[in-house]
Amino acid sequence: MATFFRRLANAAPSLLRYNALLGTQSKIHSSNFRFPIGAIAAASGGVSYLYYVSSSDMVHLDPNSEEASSKVALKSGKWIEFKLQDSARVTHNTQLFRFSFDPSETLGLNVASCIYTRAPIGQDDEGKVKYVVRPYTPISDPDARGYFDLLIKVYPQGKMSQHFASLKPGDVLEVKGPIEKLKYSPNMKKRIGMIAGGTGITPMLQVIDAIVKNPDDNTQVSLLYGNVSPDDILLKQKLDILASSHPNLKVFYTVDNPSQNWKGGKGYVSKDMVIKGLPPPGDDSLILVCGPPGMMKHISGDKAPDYSQGELDGMLKELGYTKEMVYKF
């Protein structure tokens, strides 16, 4: 296919089609049914995009196939090259990248896991190649075969994000993983609250997708998603569609710089927002947190120097949560 991104003149049909796809996907149990997976609607300056797998990339869903489930593209501890299939702008500083691999394989991620990416940035004094390495969480379905998607915020001085921005279709990216984070299992908690900022939405989306596509998972999910402005909200259309079609998912947005017609929250995530929007402290509750360092410090405290969870601090501690009730991505 020429590109997996199609600009739509009218957003409504795309949303209806994706909504129908979501409803169908959660109820599929037949290994003989064929349908495109990975559909995501993303808003960018009022223009809607829908990307999907073309008919040539249709896959068989066969949850009972041990052979299919065992074929994974990632090789633990080894850097693997993946080819860029296409990319598209999502916001003024965020891009979406799709990388392809053998269509008979899955990437090899559990929920919730991330991958390491690396890019060469010159040579050291001994003439050896130096690399910049960064972790990212794919936003595509971990069960998707033949591709994975990364949502990347491109910073002017960001060595890795600038490398992403320079990639053209056909170029390769070196990836290593999986790096397991939270080991999610269906119904592990009755209620999961999420606090995300910016691209911190990516691991949340991985968990949300796992819950809503499983008809036997009854977890109640509530998301507080903070951004600088309404235009910075990533994948808002997809989140809105998921929330409107799944009663067990609630989404609340807050922005630092609201527009004149903004109807969501205003300012940083506050204690009042947490009290009203997230599950209270308790053994059946889990709060997930992911965002920029300043936000993490304010909400939950930083991770330990060795990247373990460390002690709970910040707003959540003040509200009575314990470290066992909070997970920091």
From TrEMBL:
Gene Ontology molecular function: cytochrome-b5 reductase activity, acting on NADH
EC number: 1.6.2.2
Alphabetic keyword roster: FAD, Flavoprotein, Mitochondrion, NAD, Oxidoreductase
Organism whose genome encodes this protein: Cucumis melo var. makuwa
Family note: Belongs to the flavoprotein pyridine nucleotide cytochrome reductase family.
Family matches, as PROSITE patterns: FAD_FR (PS51384)
Pfam family membership, one: NAD_binding_1
Boundaries of every FAD-binding FR-type domain copy: 77-185
Cofactor dependence: FAD
Principal subcellular localization: mitochondrion
Annotated protein name in UniProt: NADH-cytochrome b5 reductase
Reaction(s) this enzyme catalyzes, per UniProt: 2 Fe(III)-[cytochrome b5] + NADH = 2 Fe(II)-[cytochrome b5] + NAD(+) + H(+)
Subcellular location: Mitochondrion
Residues engaged in binding FAD: R134, P135, Y136, L151, K153, K159, M160, S161, T202
Entry-linked SUPFAM superfamilies: Ferredoxin reductase-like, C-terminal NADP-linked domain, Riboflavin synthase domain-like
Broadest EC class assigned to this enzyme: oxidoreductase
One GO CC term on file: mitochondrion
